[in-house]
Design a protein that fits this description.
Number of domains: 2
Radius of gyration: 23 Å
CATH architecture of the largest domain: 2-Layer Sandwich
Largest sheet: 4 strands, mixed
Shape: elongated
CATH class of the largest domain: Alpha Beta
Order of helices and strands: EEHEHEHH
Number of helices: 4
Structural class: alpha/beta
Strand content: 15-25%
Distance between the termini: 44 Å
CATH topology of the largest domain: Transcription Regulator spoIIAA
Length: 165
């Protein structure tokens, strides 16, 4: 079984940067992560969210690369990790590599709420898009099933009446 290639997606919503990592993060794919993360971190963010929900494999080199990304975030920028699966959490815990760090930017409660709203809005858009794709696939599947059912019913009627094609 082959593992999926590494995909790094970067989304900015105002002052929040979401770095989504999916696929396999190992010695062969870490350069992709570090290269893309370095490019995005050139533009300062007030919060960096590392989304690992799509990560299917993680080795020690991948952990080191994630730690380097977290350290490369601007001073005072909080780094949050979201969506890490059980396996990824276990590896991070075993290696005692902290990826998250609190921010030192003094934001009042309203600014934090705005940042949270931006993140939620971004995830909401992504979920809505994914839901639309799934609904379209389901609709196409039902349409295909109906046409197959109609074809089979016609073939059954023809076989009962003795009329061949």
């Amino acid at each position: 079984m082959t593992m999926p290639p590494l995909t790094v997606t970067i989304a900015r919503e105002g002052r929040v940067c979401v770095l989504s990592v999916s696929g396999e993060l190992d010695i062969a794919t870490t350069p992709t992560l570090t290269r893309q993360a370095a490019a995005v971190l050139q533009d300062p963010a007030e919060r960096l969210i590392i989304d690992l929900s799509g990560l299917e494999f993680l080795d020690c080199c991948g952990v080191r690369a994630l730690a380097a990304v977290a350290r490369a975030a601007p001073p005072g920028c909080p780094v949050l990790v979201r969506g890490a699966g059980t396996r990824a959490r276990r590896i991070l815990d075993l290696l005692a590599v902290p990826l998250e760090r609190p921010g030192t930017v003094s934001l009042d409660r309203a600014e934090w709420l705005i940042l949270e709203a931006q993140v939620l809005r971004s995830w909401s858009r992504e979920t809505r898009t994914h839901s639309r794709v799934l609904a379209a696939q389901a609709h196409q599947g039902r349409r295909d099933a109906r046409s197959e059912s109609t074809r089979l019913a016609a073939a059954l009627r023809e076989s009962r009446t003795g009329q061949g094609p």
